[in-house]
Structures are given as structure tokens and as C-alpha cells.
Amino acid sequence: MKKVKKWYDYLWILTPVYLALGFFNILFAWLGLVAFFTPLLISIFGGGKAYCNKYCARGQLFQLLGTKFKLSRNKPCPKWLYSKGFRYGFLTFFMIMFIQMLYNTYLVFGGASDLKQVVTLLWTFKLPWNFAYTTEVSPWIAQFSFGFYSVMMTSTILGLITMFLFKPRTWCVYCPMGTMTQGICKLKYRNKDI
Q1: Nearest-CA neighbor of 159 among 146, 143, 176?
Q2: Which of 39, 119, 151, 171 could make a disulfide contact with 129, Cβ separation 3.0–4.6 Å?
């Protein structure tokens, strides 16, 4: 019997649409905040890891590419990726990069720094992205867009790399949002029988 698809089974389309919109106009990067806050809110208000399990557009995309299009080697991921040390270490690194992005936005807001029209991939490679900044807005709004798009693009690239090398949803093992939602769930339910 064929499984009936639900509306949320098609959320994978949001990832390529988001990346395409940011390619043509960097200000669309602000839409990524939905993917940033939604998992946290769902886990805080009792939905547990429902976002990760059902609604994550990126996880769905990796699953689709890895299974239907057979772009994954489908090998087990290394045990160290599952380790608490790696997951929380990666979350810490990710948050430091996020805070640095917010600090750069603050500097531009305060007028202390010029707008950097670059997208930084893998926190290292700076790509000029000024072609995607066609609408003049306050410089701090644009600076946040460039920084946040860099975060979203970098995490997608990391997910694609681990999808190719291992199982399709290997990114989900060490995803910072997944680690945060898991931490929220542990804090909420630590004194309850589950």
C-alpha cells in the first residue's frame, strides 16, 4: 500500500528555494530565521523533536537526494559524530560563529565598520556577493543578510558532504539546531517519567 504524503513531506522544496532567493537578492536571507526559531519554539512548547523528525526542510532534502537520487554512499557515519563531545563542541563553534556574525552586524549598525558584501563559505572562503545586493536598505540589515546566508549556505554544504560520504541524514546527527532542541527536551523532561 502506497504511503499517502502529507503537506509537510514537501517542505524539502524550501531549502533550494531559500538558497536561490538569496542568490538573487541577499535580503531574502532573513527568511532563514524561521528555520532558526521554529525548532526551538516547537521543543519549548512541548513538541519535542517534531521539527527535526517531520518538518525540517534540509533533512528532507538530504533524504530525497540520498535515497531517491542515490547520491549517498549510505555508509554508517563514524561514531565520533554521534559523541556528545563532538555535537556540543560543534554547537559551541557554530554559536561562536553566529555571535561573531551578530557582532559584525552590530558594528555596521553603529557605523564603525563598512558593509562587507561577501558570503563566507565554511567560515573560510569569502565569495563576493554584491550582485545579490540590489535593493538599498540600512547597511546593518544587509550585513545581517550576508552573515546569515553564509551560515545557512555553510551548514547546507556540510550536510551535503556528509550525505555523500555517509547516510543521507548524517547532518541531523550533529546539526546545531537538533542538538539545541535535544538539550531543551532533556531539560524539560528530566524530572518526568518518559
Answers
A1: 176
A2: 119
The predicted structure's pLDDT at residue 131: 85
Q: What are the tens digits of pLDDT across the range 5-45?
A: 999 999 999 999 999 999 999 999 999 999 999 999 999 99
Q: 17 φ, ψ to 5°?
A: -65, -45
**Residues, the chain:** 194
Chain centroid to Cα 52, Å, comes to: 11
Give me the residues of the chain with pLDDT under 50, please: 194
DSSP string, the chain: -PPPPPGGGGGGGHHHHHHHHHHH-GGGGGGHHHHHHHHHHHHHTT-TTHIIIII-HHHHHHHIIIIIS--S--PPPPHHHHSHHHHHHHHHHHHHHHHHHHHHHHHHHTTSS----EEEETTTEEEE-GGG--S---HHHHHHHHHHHHHHHHHHHHHHHHHHHS-TTTHHHH-HHHHHHHHHHHHHHTTS--
Instruction: Give the position of cell 528532507.
Output: 60
Instruction: Enter the pTM of the model.
Output: 0.91
CA distance 160 to 194: 34
Cell 518526568 belongs to: 192
